[in-house]
Amino acid sequence: MLDNIGELVTNDPSAGRGASAQAGLGVRRDAALLIESGRIVWVGAAAGAPAADEQVDCGGAAVMPGFVDSHSHVIFAGDRAPEFAARMAGEPYSAGGIGTTVAATRVASDAQLRANASRLTTELIRSGSTTFEIKSGYGLTVVDEARCLRIAAEFTDEVTFLGAHVVPPEFVDDRRGYLDLLTGPMLDACAAQARWVDVFCDRGAFDADESAQVLAAGVARGLVPRVHANQLQRGPGVKLAVAFGAASADHCTHLSAEDITALADSARSSTPTVATLLPGAEFSTRSPYPDARRLLEAGAVVALATDCNPGTSYTTSMPFCIALAVREMGMSVPEAVRAATIGGASALRRTDVGRIVVGGSADILVLAAPSYVHLAYRPGVDLIRQVWRRGRCVRGGRTDRTLGWSR
Fold first, then answer.
1. Are the C-beta atoms of 312 and 272 separated by less than 8 Å?
2. pLDDT (tens digit, 9 = 90+) per residue, 45-93?
3. Residue range 206-261, pLDDT digits in tens
4. Domain enclosing residue 202, as ranges
5. Per residue in 54-86, is it b (16+ CB within 10 Å) or e — as a string?
6. Does one domain contain both 154 and 27?
């Protein structure tokens, strides 16, 4: 039993009142919740809580669903700090820097890749991400893509094949040859290890026809599409994602009115194409931020994710992304928190995470703060006091006397 919760974000609109209900956060005051066998089995007022074998006093702190990070690239080797420093000195970003990481990843051992992924996924969990997706995309050979996916599957069930990240250097003069490899032998070797297929449809990567070929090949092998879309310029990525019924169009930095309408129209479906915004990338590339306000007002489903990668968004912190979304992208704090939780769940087509409801997975955060608002109000401060993942406390011991908060 998690008891003495001052503010409980459930993402269940029927549970809240007033502004919190309108924002969809379903905030309860003076609440408690009961966990059994990794699931939430009761949520309600603390005064009416049932008996439990074990009790954690949250000390009046805010409690909320774990973050759902639907976009990360944590299977890689090497470092691109010089590239980051050059951008901060005024050099523009292009997709070409991915090749640096591809070269380092290809020569790294499985043990090195696994150790780096373990470090980064530990950071994700400590920062409150209880569900996260991991992509391949830094191998770009049959053997290297397959081993990257195999390692990714050790850390998450949400594994994405991204052989279509860029055309590798050995195929720079033979794009057709790489597409044939990617959509044939590479997908044959990788499909069984992935749930999703992704493509970087943008300048310097793959055009609309090439991207459609990749997605169609993935779908034919039972994978569900995702698309890196409209990061570097306006283009066909978002419309392609919607046309393929993709779970998400990621980045969405440069959108036309038609793109926004397409995403909003898809939101009426039971399986919408979610606009997944990645503000860490704009922060790290000094690029314009996506206009989340236009998407939300049009009715699109919006998610936030870290895009953790060594080149353009080397962060594992969803709270940081929430703060950026509020400060730079026109989102209110409730909208950003919802996008980082239930929005991410929608982008992974999951209904068991991103919310605190009876029957849902017990993926829960206890904050060192009285309200979720502090996630944006106190940027850069580690406010994750306790993390529960599938009913198990994985950060902050159950008897941690520092639970709760003080003014």
1. no
2. 999 999 999 999 999 999 999 999 999 999 999 999 988 998 899 887 6
3. 999 999 999 999 999 999 999 999 999 999 999 999 999 999 999 999 999 999 99
4. 68-347
5. eebebbebbbbbbbbbbbbbbbbbbebeebbee
6. no
Tens digits of residue pLDDT in 158-212: 999 999 999 999 999 999 999 999 999 999 999 999 999 999 999 999 999 999 9
What's the one-letter identity of residue 8? Answer: L
User: Which residue(s) pair with 44 in the sheet?
Assistant: 32
Structural domain total, the chain: 2
Residue 114 falls within a domain, yes or no? Answer: yes
295 CB contacts (<8 Å, ≥6 apart)?
A: 252, 255, 260, 263, 264, 275, 277, 302
- The reported pTM is 0.95
23 & 117 share domain:
no
151: domain CATH number is 3.20.20.140
Tell me the CB-side half-sphere exposure of residue 319, using CA atoms within 13 A. 26
Residue 405 domain-assigned (yes or no)? no
Q: Any residues with CB less than 8 A from the CB of 28 and at least 6 apart, and which?
A: 5, 7, 8, 10, 15, 16, 43, 44, 45
Among candidate residues 264, 284, 283, 286, the one with its CA nearest the CA of residue 273: 264
Flag whether 245 is in a domain: yes
Q: Do both 59 and 86 map to the same domain?
A: no
Q: Is residue 365 part of a domain?
A: yes
Task: Give the Cα separation of 276 and 238 in Å (integer).
Answer: 11
